[in-house]
């Protein structure tokens, strides 16, 4: 697969048209993202090179695995933002979170705890890869009742979606938005994820695109050429990235 990525290739203008990346892990030491401030700024400079003007970084909140909360995330974010400022980086950066759908999130909703959102009250959600959470519908309903729109991160990567793609439409009908991982289109995650991503793209299921960048290598892979037909397919759709507040 890595032979597909050619060095010194100019990124497609489609990427710069997005203006904002809405999914990344650029706060070191709090999840499985970048390991240092130096790695973080390397990725951020890469986004600038791709033509982005803004990054919304989204650390995991996954109790028992990544025990983050708004206080921890904001502390790390301020360190990142200050470092970028000292290094003269121009790109704008803000912070939200990627929430794992579990009983902790459900309890946070029931007790009206603060949730880290982005844009016009959007929240990024992930699940386990093999089975949909039994409380998924309840979480979606409670979010919608608080005027928060759930954004399903990379649905094309979940095995339970790959095995039963018709589930996707039911989630959209419940009021979710879908976020495509750009590298899914290259086969970076798997052939199945690529095929589902293209099918969902053709069906108009995606409202947002994210890099889900965890490390500099992934940012470099974004510069790789995609087939002309895929770029044409992307260009036929309007994505919310460029219009986010």
Strand content: 5-15%
| Whole-number count of domains | 1
- Fraction of residues in H or I helices: 25-40%
Number of helices: 10
- Say how many strands there are: 9
CATH T-level topology: TIM Barrel
Q: What value does the Rg take, in angstroms?
A: 17 Å
For the record, give the distance between the C-alpha atoms at the N and C termini, rounded to a whole number: 36 Å
Mean pLDDT: 94
Q: What's the CATH class, please?
A: Alpha Beta
Q: What would you call the structural class?
A: alpha/beta
N-to-C series of helices and strands:
HEHEEHEEHEHEHHEHEHH
Major sheet description: 6 strands, parallel
**Widest sheet: strand ordering:** 3-5-6-7-8-9
CATH superfamily heading:
Metal-dependent hydrolases
CATH architecture: Alpha-Beta Barrel
What best-fitting shape do the alpha-carbon axes yield?
globular
């Amino acid at each position: 697969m890595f032979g597909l990525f050619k060095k010194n290739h100019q990124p497609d203008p489609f990427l710069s048209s997005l203006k904002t990346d809405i999914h990344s892990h650029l706060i070191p030491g709090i999840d499985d993202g970048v390991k240092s401030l130096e790695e973080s700024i390397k990725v951020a400079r890469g986004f600038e090179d791709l033509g982005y003007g803004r990054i919304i970084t989204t650390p995991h909140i996954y109790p028992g695995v990544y025990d983050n909360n708004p206080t921890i995330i904001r502390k790390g974010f301020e360190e990142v933002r200050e470092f970028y400022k000292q290094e003269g980086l121009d790109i704008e950066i803000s912070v939200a979170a990627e929430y794992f759908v579990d009983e902790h999130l459900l309890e946070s909703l029931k007790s009206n705890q603060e949730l880290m959102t982005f844009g016009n009250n959007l929240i990024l959600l992930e699940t386990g890869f093999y089975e949909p959470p039994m409380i998924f519908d309840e979480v979606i309903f409670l979010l919608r009742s608080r005027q928060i729109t759930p954004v399903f991160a990379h649905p094309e990567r979940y095995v339970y979606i790959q095995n039963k793609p018709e589930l996707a439409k039911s989630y959209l009908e419940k009021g979710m938005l879908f976020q495509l991982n750009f590298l899914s289109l290259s086969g970076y995650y798997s052939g199945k994820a690529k095929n589902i991503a293209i099918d969902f793209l053709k069906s108009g299921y995606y409202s947002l695109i994210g890099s889900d960048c965890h490390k500099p290598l992934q940012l470099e892979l974004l510069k790789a050429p995609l087939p002309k037909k895929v770029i044409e397919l992307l260009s036929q759709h309007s994505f919310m990235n460029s219009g986010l507040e």
